[in-house]
From TrEMBL:
Keyword NAD: no
Organism ancestry: Eukaryota, Metazoa, Chordata, Craniata, Vertebrata
UniProt EC number: 1.3.8.5
Role, per record: Isobutyryl-CoA dehydrogenase which catalyzes the conversion of 2-methylpropanoyl-CoA to (2E)-2-methylpropenoyl-CoA in the valine catabolic pathway. To a lesser extent, also able to catalyze the oxidation of (2S)-2-methylbutanoyl-CoA.
Annotated organism of origin: Dicentrarchus labrax
Domain Acyl-CoA dehydrogenase/oxidase C-terminal intervals: 254-404
One Pfam family named in its UniProt record: Acyl-CoA_dh_N
GO cellular component, one term: mitochondrion
PROSITE patterns to which the protein is assigned, alphabetical: ACYL_COA_DH_1 (PS00072)
Pathway(s) where this gene product acts: Amino-acid degradation; L-valine degradation
Record's catalysed reaction(s): (2S)-2-methylbutanoyl-CoA + oxidized [electron-transfer flavoprotein] + H(+) = (2E)-2-methylbut-2-enoyl-CoA + reduced [electron-transfer flavoprotein]; propanoyl-CoA + oxidized [electron-transfer flavoprotein] + H(+) = acryloyl-CoA + reduced [electron-transfer flavoprotein]; 2-methylpropanoyl-CoA + oxidized [electron-transfer flavoprotein] + H(+) = 2-methylpropenoyl-CoA + reduced [electron-transfer flavoprotein]
InterPro entries: Acyl-CoA_DH_CS, Acyl-CoA_Oxase/DH_mid-dom, Acyl-CoA_Oxase/DH_mid-dom_sf, AcylCo_DH-like_C, AcylCo_DH/oxidase_C, AcylCoA_DH/ox_N, AcylCoA_DH/ox_N_sf, AcylCoA_DH/oxidase_NM_dom_sf
Annotated keywords: Branched-chain amino acid catabolism, FAD, Flavoprotein, Oxidoreductase, Signal, Transit peptide
Family the entry assigns: Belongs to the acyl-CoA dehydrogenase family.
Protein known as: Isobutyryl-CoA dehydrogenase, mitochondrial
Amino acid sequence: FNMSGGCKQVAYAFHPHVLYVLCSLLTAAHGLSDEQREFQKVAFDFAANEMAPHMAEWDEKEMFPIETMRKAAQLGFGGIYVQPDVGGSGLSRLDTSVIFEALSTGCVSTTAYISIHNMCAWMIDTFGNTEQREKFCPDLCSMEKFASYCLTEPGSGSDAASLLTTAQLKGDHYILNGSKAFISGGGDTDVYVVMCRTGGKGPKGISCLVVEKETPGLSFGKKEKKVGWNSQPTRAVIFEDCAVPVTNRLGEEGQGFGIAMKGLNGGRINIASCSLGAAHACVQLARDHLLVRKQFGETLSNNQFLQFKLAEMATKLVASRLLVREAATALQESRSDAVSLCSMAKLFVTDECFNICNQALQMHGGYGYLKDYAVQQFVRDIRVHQILEGTNEVMRMIISRNLLTES
Ligand SMILES: Cc1cc2nc3c(=O)[nH]c(=O)nc-3n(C[C@H](O)[C@H](O)[C@H](O)COP(=O)(O)OP(=O)(O)OC[C@H]3O[C@@H](n4cnc5c(N)ncnc54)[C@H](O)[C@@H]3O)c2cc1C
């Protein structure tokens, strides 16, 4: 295509080979084992062939690409860090990060939903008993069924421990009443991992129940209209005298908040990894654009200001990736600094990668603002990573609290 004289063709320049050249240039594969490089390549290829060609349409038409996700599950991406005896891939947190970064180069929104699904499957695998693991995990790992994580409520976002949804024990069932807000996948998914109040105020009164879609008393709000993340639905989840068997409780009564937070530690690495993928793709798109776009008689790539900007973007991407991989390793090894590192990775990486994508859009000039160009979708899709799974202000609270209370 010819951009020196104006746009002639849609610039969804995603060729697997091109992305792979970039990834070795930016050291995404350096330091990884042979096995890790192999599944990284599988994920990059899947992103380039199965996701990137559709990401604009999924966004525009707000399509939840169930069949594509099931194909991803066939590669083991439905339960990446779930144990193999219930259908999971049994991989590490670092492996998971590598996979989500690669997949996100093809579609951030879809990959981010897959990451939430993986988090739910891991929570059931880790905190469920044998019957619960065997009942739910195989179908989640194959993505025959899809999962949602239900913590936020209309009145409790950052202060999640103040949630009000009640679960009253009656015989062998809990009767749920209340509602959850902003639930990713809500209405289209089959399994809801719900944090609800079985006891008094505060985190110790919270339990975790798995609610199945067919349960009477479970309903959904309207599909939210969003800036990005349009390939996955977001809805309120409503409970009206919704009877859930006691056998669907994960862990003991009162352990729900701890389970929710443990899920989120990994979730924060995953969402940061999705931001890495977006930034990775945007550095590529910006580089390609600078090399072809001519102004003032030469390509933009000859302009030192833009060269320096590109260098800064690449440097921040590599620094971000190092932090994510350090946090993933700390979580895998259950290190005492893991919670802080997961929060640091989420804070630093989602902010820096948003800036990288936004700078890439700037480098595209007016074209960057057109929906024909992928860069704007990356910007829209990763903006929300600074808000959810704990806002970046909440990340600062966790990091400083751990620093100030450490003995
Ligand atoms: C697209 C999307 C998908 C989502 N998916 C899910 C999901 O699947 N499951 C789920 O449970 N939730 C989900 N969420 C909800 C998300 O986690 C919350 O929006 C987020 O935790 C913030 O809560 P809030 O929106 O109520 O903002 P608030 O808590 O009202 O915060 C508003 C602002 O004030 C700041 N703030 C609040 N308290 C403090 C403080 N003490 N110090 C400094 N700043 C503060 C916040 O950081 C934020 O900037 C999703 C949200 C979106 C937008």
